[in-house]
Design goal:
By secondary structure, the protein is α+β, with helices and mostly antiparallel strands. The chain has seven helices and ten strands.
Length: 255
């Protein structure tokens, strides 16, 4: 069976505190128990999702998980989410179809739907503690395509810009988009988070023009830096532009 995946540790530069789980330098976070955030994308043979929609849906799924009441305070997932964010941030995207997808849906998690994509996100699990029905899913193989070139990002939405110099599988790019969305979330105040929630976590994921990438990555924006453990060499993968735009989004702006 073919699949879509990534399994990585990522670092980033951002305005977050110096002890960020996205720092590249060794820290005490490396000695903490390591967790991973599982995401599963539904890819049926006859109707695979569009690539860009899958990337955007995965990014929103990360936001939905972070904002869910079960992830906060004394919620059922809160301890796992805190432990995951206290260590290095890892996300793994796997692929399911048919009965595999139905078994994944039966596990505690949240399914987020885009225009063509369905992504289910689960509370973080230890690196060696995957639920059986998720551990069996494949983590390599099929990529996704866009039937048509994606349109220009809608006005006023945050944009997660992908590095135009990289070739990433859909799973790798979905994880990177999720990292970018997480960086954006950390930058926001509670009122801004509430506004983004009301807008359905509206965002866009696009590949930057080659001539603009340097501008995006040298202007102080939050950027994701991949550690280079899978698929690509260490380096920048995503630049997050327009985080402040969430304050003026219209309710339920996302598809």
């Amino acid at each position: 069976m073919e699949g879509v995946s990534t399994d990585e540790t990522t670092t980033a530069t951002t305005s977050a505190p110096g002890d960020s789980p996205f720092r590249s330098e060794p820290s005490t976070r490396d000695q903490a128990p390591q967790f991973v955030l599982p995401l599963v994308v539904r890819i049926e043979r006859a109707a695979p999702p569009a690539r860009t929609d899958a990337l955007e849906t995965a990014a929103r799924a990360v936001l939905v998980l972070l904002d869910d009441e079960r992830s906060l305070g004394d919620g059922a997932w809160a301890r796992a989410v805190r432990d995951w964010q206290d260590a290095r941030i890892r996300k793994v995207v796997r692929r399911a179809r048919g009965a595999e997808w139905r078994r994944a849906e039966a596990l505690p998690g949240i399914t987020v739907t885009g225009q063509t994509a369905e992504v289910r996100v689960f509370p973080p699990v230890p690196l060696d503690g995957w639920p059986k029905d998720l551990a069996k899913l494949q983590v390599s193989g099929t990529d996704l395509d866009d039937p048509e070139p994606p349109a220009e990002p809608g006005p006023g939405v945050p944009v997660l810009w992908l590095n135009p110099g990289l070739e990433m599988t859909a799973g790798k790019a979905m994880a990177q988009a999720g990292h970018g969305a997480q960086l954006a979330w950390w930058e926001l105040t509670q009122p801004q988070r509430a506004a983004w929630r009301e807008a359905g976590y509206a965002l866009a994921v696009r590949t930057a023009a080659a001539g603009r990438w340097e501008e995006l990555t040298t202007s102080g924006l939050p950027v994701v830096r991949d550690a280079g453990f899978t698929e690509i060499a260490p380096g920048l993968t995503v630049a997050v532009e327009g985080i402040e735009r969430v304050a003026s989004l219209s309710p339920r702006q996302a598809p």
